[in-house]
Design brief:
Bound molecules: 3-hydroxypyruvic acid
Shape: globular
Number of strands: 8
Strand order of the largest sheet: 1-2-3-4-5-6-7-8
Helix content: 40-55%
Distance between the termini: 18 Å
Length: about 250
């Protein structure tokens, strides 16, 4: 069954103390409410165990923002999927455009990370999206199809069913520009059709495809009203409960 999901991506923000407070605020803000979506907090590695402890017993789940492409060993500074899972986190954001851009993550690396995440019981939130020049050249459809194909279509149907997709047009990240709801719907539909072609219609219909890129309380309802937009991966607006709650409440 396809799920509606609102996931925060805190990126490299908040001290540990601030992160714990933020998680407590988000938890308090949804307390006693009937939610129309799953809520996930994507937090820095240093915060995972503490945030997982804060949200214990609530519907909120915790995600890492990355994991290593190796299972263990001499990789100074890396954090493995097994380590992430040992903190109580259940999800991991992979392939965010900032990782692709600044850390040169390619599809082979990402495919390894997805494999390790799944092997360690983590649900990947796999990000795809085109840069501005690709959109302007009309290549956005082929770019996102290729990203999904190259990193994910080697998975068995059973494993692919565990993956959440997040379409994040790079030109809309941290720029204040948002894809219109129509632009988001058009490309989400395209992604779902690519999944259907590979794994069949039932798998495609069950796959959650989130929109990310300057999604906020003001535009979430319109974006989420589209049939193929199943929620959001939220950057800046996930950094306070006041801004995050209206996005969660966009699913009522
Ligand atoms: C943004 O909205 O800025 C994001 O990158 C969410 O991942």
């Amino acid at each position: 069954m396809r799920k509606n999901i609102v996931a925060g991506n805190w990126k490299m923000n908040t001290s540990l103390a601030e992160g714990i407070l933020l998680a407590k605020d988000v938890k308090a803000s949804i307390e006693g409410k009937t939610l129309g979506c799953d809520v996930i907090l994507g937090v820095p590695f240093t915060h995972l165990a503490s945030v997982a402890e804060v949200v214990k017993g609530s519907p909120i789940k915790v995600a890492a923002e990355d994991c290593a492409a190796y299972d263990k060993g001499a990789y100074t500074g890396e954090v493995s999927a097994e380590m992430v899972a040992s903190t109580g986190a259940t999800h991991v954001i992979l392939g965010h455009s900032e990782r692709r851009m600044y850390f040169k993550e390619c599809h082979e690396t990402l495919a390894k990370k997805v494999r390790l995440a799944l092997d360690n019981g983590l649900t990947p939130i796999f990000c795809i999206g085109e840069v501005l020049e690709e959109r302007e050249a009309g290549k956005h459809f082929e770019v996102v199809s290729r990203q999904v194909e190259e990193s994910l279509f080697g998975l068995s149907e059973t494993d692919f069913r565990k993956v959440i997709l997040a379409y994040e047009p790079v030109w809309a990240i941290g720029t204040g520009k948002t894809a219109t709801a129509e632009q988001a719907q058009e490309i989400h539909d395209h992604i779902r059709k690519a999944v259907a072609k590979k794994y069949g219609e039932a798998v495609a219909q069950d796959c959650s495809i989130l929109y990310g890129g300057s999604c906020n309380g003001g535009n979430a309802s319109e974006l989420f009203s589209k049939p193929d937009v199943d929620g959001g991966l939220i950057g800046g607006a996930a950094l306070t409960a006041e801004k995050f709650l209206p996005i969660i409440e966009a699913f009522d």
